[in-house]
């Protein structure tokens, strides 16, 4: 892990310094209670898959995660972090985008909501497309009240056994050692963003998704324990992307919230990276 820009830590593909010739520059945005290591676990690494395919990629630590300093508490919700990242991504593009065709965002869970919010706003960088997973239109009833009951502080620790129950799908959909292996990606959860994803997002999602004017790749796990999941919900999410010129949306059978950690993870990464390459040809 190192500094991507002065205000954000993270990690990147080893080939970042190679001369680039029109490839997309992928920036991955992790979800709640994880760090940038989410995208770099051995055998389930988006960064390794990108490097193997000659695609420069960066996984950032969002504010308040890893070595990235937190914003003021009132800006640590989804909208506040998205506003910060609009400027931070412009700096990433200025520093690392030479020779690339544009930025391509990959977001998971709360990181997907933040990435979608960024994509709905004008930015000082060329944005090619967006890939999101672990997100929907509606979280489960009662989740907002449960998160509200957490201690009134910025960072809260989520016990590993509770995380395993909600982040992973049915037995057999992931390697037996994966829950333990995923611990190196753990980070304290940020209470304002937990409240935002289970409250504010429900009312804001349609407007945000409707303002995204770039291609969108969307995958949602059939056995996601944090969202209401059905074919109707998937279609509703896709229909909300009214301004997008290309939408690839579907449910992924028999897998859980953190799809990247499951057996389907490598396939998901190749799909997302392939979509990024396709978006680069549309420039």
Automatic annotation (TrEMBL):
AB hydrolase-1 domain boundaries: 26-261
Gene3D superfamilies: alpha/beta hydrolase
Top-level taxon of origin: Bacteria
Record-given protein name: Pimeloyl-ACP methyl ester carboxylesterase
Coiled coil: none
One Pfam family in the UniProt entry: Abhydrolase_6
